[in-house]
Specification:
Layout (H helix, E strand, L loop, with lengths): L9 E7 L12 E7 L20 H5 L1
Antiparallel strand pairs: 1-2
């Protein structure tokens, strides 16, 4: 038995538009809609359900 689910044709991502100076502002990020990629032979497409951004990441920006 195979389990297939219908994937959406497009997705939304949040992109870092500029390095924050001080507190991050809404203008430091931008929303992008993009076409959902297709998995090729021997590949698999995964959906991220949870994402953690730790305070440590602030210094990595």
């Amino acid at each position: 038995m195979t389990m297939e689910t219908t994937m959406p044709q497009s997705a939304l991502r949040i992109v870092l538009a500029s390095r924050p100076v001080g507190e991050p502002k809404e203008t430091d990020f931008r929303r992008e809609e993009f076409a959902m990629p297709q998995a090729g032979p021997g590949q698999m497409l995964l959906r991220t359900l949870w994402l953690s951004l730790d305070p440590y990441m602030r210094g990595r920006l």
